[in-house]
């Protein structure tokens, strides 16, 4: 129930997305019913496929879908013209086209075009099997093109006119949201009231969302493209503020001194001014010496000093020059014609679709042709991803079928106008749209929910109470899912179980890189830039690990092929996450205590960071097989930490902040030792 509540919880922009779906759907239903445009369920599904998280993606997806639909219809017409009297040749030609389309899907950034061509060309074969006259068959193919393209154009228009989600505005909103989190933490310290700790996942997602919005903003707005360097610097600084707030949320609540109260008030005022400047799109403020030159005497002071430097970095970003135009990357991947996995993937997909096609043709059960389409829909590079999509497809179809069944029995017999049809349909579409506007874990359930209902109740121009469509579609999906997953499991399976270990190894190496970051830099700005880059890489790899872990858990037979791997890696990933946060905290402490560090202490810290990085890299080697032996332990291995301990016991005036530096190093050492002990157990 907790997962369901999380997935269905409202978030900024979700209600507006649902309203756009409902408006576009209502227009499509009225137009198709009034003008008797066939294939209304197909038109509705194009609304959901076209509408994306922002206007740039919506426009790009619409263009790709129109191109793919046009190419597919042209190829379908050519196949009908030249192979209508040769069934075997027609099927073989469709298989070749589908193979090429699925191969193109794996090797190109525009792979959606190949995917749509493969799907539709195979779908057209079910039209031929209906025994239609050549003229009727050609008309059906042309109507498919009309039924697909006009909803795409209509959806793009609706998304640009009604509550448009432009990437530039989304970027500003997300920056303001993260700044509000910082303000809330500062307010909690001023009021001495407890606050909820900010998790590492929230910090990682926050910075990745900012970069994602910036990518699309530069594609849709020339101003953002020209000022890309300034926006990148601003994002890096806000990430530093957000990360510092996360560390602040973990510190124990303690009474503030008068100087600290003044510092917190000054930081809050500057953060609020920054948030207001972003909201009004005015010049960003350039604060100087927000917390003065008071020496760092505690972990709390280190966080405040980090926030000050982040605010100063935002002000300095205003002076950055215009960014040069980026060189466009190629459309094809570098190993497009060398990697055999691409051809194997395409062949598996065509084989699964052919098995379903032969089956429903042999048993003369045309109603379950959705089994063939399911094989293409579930065609994803990872077996875990295919299983996840298959599960969401079945759940969505089952829910939509139940709603369609209830409507067919109790409501549809009483409808006599299109107004009544809209009153029945639009609330159902709104429910499906609410789910479809959610996270990738469950959004496909919403799409299938609406499509299953539409196939049953919107496939004709008059009310229908025929329930066979509901039954046949559900059976077809189950057959297609079983065949597709069976073929993907037994023939050239692309499992991610081993890839998960390699991904965790990359994460540990990125943590090691963050530990070393800036050690070879003497300039403060260069050192900060190196730390920011290493931290971003660590957050990105952390999220990739979590997403891959969720996919692996859905792979058939993972608990046999990777016995005890997933539970062990789950714990290792959690410990690697804590190590990432500990390294980041050590870097923050060093950044603001560095100039005042005694030379001998600075050397000991450098030695400790280097040793910690070596240990992390050894652990990474344990996961990806690139390192088999543990670093040799000698008495000198513990010298850096022992030297730090001796500094922490210094009774001088700097004892407090020296203690915090050593404490940060000790926390990191403990996190690494926990991971080390995990790897020493047989289960790891």
From TrEMBL:
MF (Gene Ontology): transmembrane transporter activity
Pfam families, sorted: FUSC
Keywords per UniProt: Cell membrane, Membrane, Transmembrane, Transmembrane helix, Transport
GO cellular component annotations of the record: plasma membrane
InterPro entries with a match to the protein in the record: PHBA_efflux_AaeB/fusaric-R
Subcellular location: Cell membrane
Bilayer topology term: Multi-pass membrane protein
Source species, domain of life: Bacteria
Full protein name: FUSC family protein
Organism, scientific name: Cupriavidus basilensis
């Amino acid at each position: 129930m907790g997962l369901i509540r999380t997935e269905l919880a409202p978030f900024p922009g979700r209600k507006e997305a649902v309203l756009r779906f409902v408006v576009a759907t209502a227009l499509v239903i009225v137009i198709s019913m009034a003008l008797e445009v066939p294939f209304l369920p197909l038109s509705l599904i194009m609304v959901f496929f076209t509408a994306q998280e922002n206007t740039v993606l919506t426009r790009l997806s619409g263009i790709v879908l129109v191109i793919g639909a046009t190419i597919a219809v042209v190829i379908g017409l050519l196949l009908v013209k030249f192979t209508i009297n040769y069934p075997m040749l027609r099927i073989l030609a469709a298989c070749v086209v589908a193979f090429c389309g699925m191969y193109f899907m794996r090797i190109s950034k525009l792979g959606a075009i190949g995917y749509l061509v493969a799907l539709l060309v195979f779908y057209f074969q079910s039209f031929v099997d209906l025994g239609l006259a050549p003229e009727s068959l050609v008309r059906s193919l042309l109507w498919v093109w009309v039924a697909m393209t006009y909803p795409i154009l209509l959806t793009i228009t609706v998304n640009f006119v009604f509550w448009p989600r432009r990437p530039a505005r989304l970027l500003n909103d997300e920056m303001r949201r993260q700044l509000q989190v910082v303000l809330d933490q500062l307010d909690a310290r001023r009021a001495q009231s407890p606050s909820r700790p900010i998790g590492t996942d929230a910090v990682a997602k926050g910075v990745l969302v900012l970069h994602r919005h910036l990518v699309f903003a530069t594609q849709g707005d020339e101003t953002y493209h020209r000022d890309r360097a300034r926006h990148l610097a601003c994002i890096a600084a806000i990430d530093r503020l957000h990360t510092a707030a996360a560390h602040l949320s973990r510190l124990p609540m303690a009474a503030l001194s008068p100087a600290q109260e003044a510092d917190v008030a000054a930081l809050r005022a500057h953060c609020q001014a920054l948030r207001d400047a972003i909201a009004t799109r005015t010049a960003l403020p350039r604060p100087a010496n927000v917390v003065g030159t008071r020496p760092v005497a505690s972990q709390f002071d280190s966080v405040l000093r980090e926030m000050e430097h982040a605010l100063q970095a935002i002000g300095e970003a205003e002076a950055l020059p215009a960014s040069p135009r980026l060189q466009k990357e190629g459309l094809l991947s570098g190993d497009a014609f060398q990697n055999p996995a691409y051809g194997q993937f395409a062949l598996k997909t065509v084989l699964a679709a052919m098995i379903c096609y032969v089956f429903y043709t042999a048993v003369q059960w045309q109603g379950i042709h959705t089994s063939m389409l399911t094989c293409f829909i579930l065609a994803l590079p990872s077996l875990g991803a295919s299983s996840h999509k298959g599960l969401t497809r079945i759940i969505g179809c089952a829910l939509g079928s139940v709603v369609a069944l209830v409507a067919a029995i109790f409501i549809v017999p009483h409808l006599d106008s299109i107004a009544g049809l809209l009153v029945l349909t639009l609330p159902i579409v709104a429910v499906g749209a609410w789910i479809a506007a959610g996270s990738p874990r469950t959004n496909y359930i919403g799409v299938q929910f609406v499509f299953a209902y539409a196939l049953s109740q919107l496939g004709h121009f008059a009310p229908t109470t025929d329930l066979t469509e509901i039954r046949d579609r559900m059976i077809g999906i189950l057959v297609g899912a079983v065949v597709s997953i069976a073929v993907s499991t037994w023939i050239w399976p692309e499992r991610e179980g081993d890839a998960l270990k390699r991904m965790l190894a990359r994460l540990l190496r990125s943590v090691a890189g963050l530990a070393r970051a800036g050690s070879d830099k003497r300039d403060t700005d260069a050192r900060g830039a190196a730390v920011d880059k290493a931290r971003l890489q660590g957050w990105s790899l952390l999220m990739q690990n979590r997403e891959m872990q969720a996919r692996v858990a859905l792979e058939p037979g993972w608990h046999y092929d990777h016995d005890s791997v997933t539970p062990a890696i789950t714990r290792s990933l959690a410990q690697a996450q804590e190590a990432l946060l500990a390294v980041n905290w050590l870097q923050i402490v060093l950044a603001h205590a560095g100039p005042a560090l005694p030379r001998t202490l600075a050397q000991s810290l450098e030695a400790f960071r280097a040793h910690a990085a070596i240990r992390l890299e050894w652990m990474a080697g344990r996961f990806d097989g690139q390192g088999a032996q543990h670093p040799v332990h000698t008495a000198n291995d513990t010298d850096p930490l022992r030297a730090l301990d001796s500094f922490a016991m210094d009774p001088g005036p700097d004892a407090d902040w020296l203690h915090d530096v050593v404490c940060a190093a000790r926390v990191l050492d403990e996190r690494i030792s926990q991971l080390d002990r995990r790897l020493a157990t047989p289960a790891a």
